[in-house]
Amino acid sequence: MQRRVLETAEIVDGVLAGNRTILSRAITLVESRKPDHFIQAQQVLEQLMPHTGGSHRIGITGVPGVGKSTFIEVFGTKLTKSGHKVAVLAVDPTSTRSGGSILGDKTRMNDLSIDPNAYIRPSPSSGYLGGVNRMTRETILLCEAAGFDVVLVETVGAGQSETMVAQMTDFFLVLMLPGAGDELQGIKKGVLEIADLIAVNKCDADPAKAREAKRAYSSALRILQPTSRHWRPQSMMVSSLTRDGLDEAWDLIKQHRQIMESEGEFAAKRARQQHDWMWTMLRDRLLETFTRRDDVRAALPGLEQNVLSGTINPTQAVEELLAMMAQKQAKKQKGRDTAAL
């Protein structure tokens, strides 16, 4: 049985009332690529915008096996017990072959998934370069409008592409493992440069290795140019098992926001994020609109095959596609000139 289509006013009122079912449907709406859904999603967002912006937006990433989901569950539960409402946007990698996605975070966060003050939304990243769903920004706004004052964005841990999450959050936390001192164990310089805090997780397993890793990251952070004149990124140790370091991590996140707000950097960063969002959406929409054209859709398979076989190079293929747009514009202009005569 097909669900009833909700009117825009129903969605807006439901989100503002904190209705989880309607919030989920609103997020599905903004993630949809259907043109009619896009129009309604923008209407919803426009009406909800005055109710957004009040949350702590925290990006969380880390190397595979570091325990991101376990950390988020215990950290999120700590926050909800302190009176916060926590939204977790757990972005799973989408298969480039099948388009499928794991979407398993609800099963990995058993306690948080049934917490009345928490909301978990797994979304496929759709192969998007930051490991972040292309509509994660809009999802953050919807969660804020629904009353969530902490939004945690768990990314896929894809190295330098994680810079994308820093463009939509206020604080960027990188989780690492003890023994990472095996020369900074796979962490990329680009991730170090955008980290506000590096937390060595599972420090209970081997405290000595954890301290060694903490020192190594502290040294690495000192030689890098910080992104803010008023905040020096640091490293610490945490344990999702024993809960050690969780209070300190939250205190640092709050301290960071207080400093950024007092120095005027918080508002400036949010403004830059809006600017970046505009250009990201413009590129996305232009590409989507272009590839939907009948002539482009007809030509793409052959051009892709020619590039794969080495018959033509990628630049030539792009120029041929752009030439189609120029030809269409020329035909339109000729038609207007003829009509004017």
UniProtKB/TrEMBL annotation:
Record-linked Pfam families: MeaB
InterPro entries per record: GTPase_ArgK (IPR005129), P-loop_NTPase (IPR027417)
This protein's GO CC annotations: cytoplasm
Molecular function terms from GO: GTP binding; GTPase activity
Family from the record: Belongs to the SIMIBI class G3E GTPase family. ArgK/MeaB subfamily.
Cross-referenced NCBIfam families: lao, PRK09435.1
Name of protein: Arginine transporter
Lineage of the organism: Bacteria, Pseudomonadati, Pseudomonadota, Alphaproteobacteria, Rhodospirillales
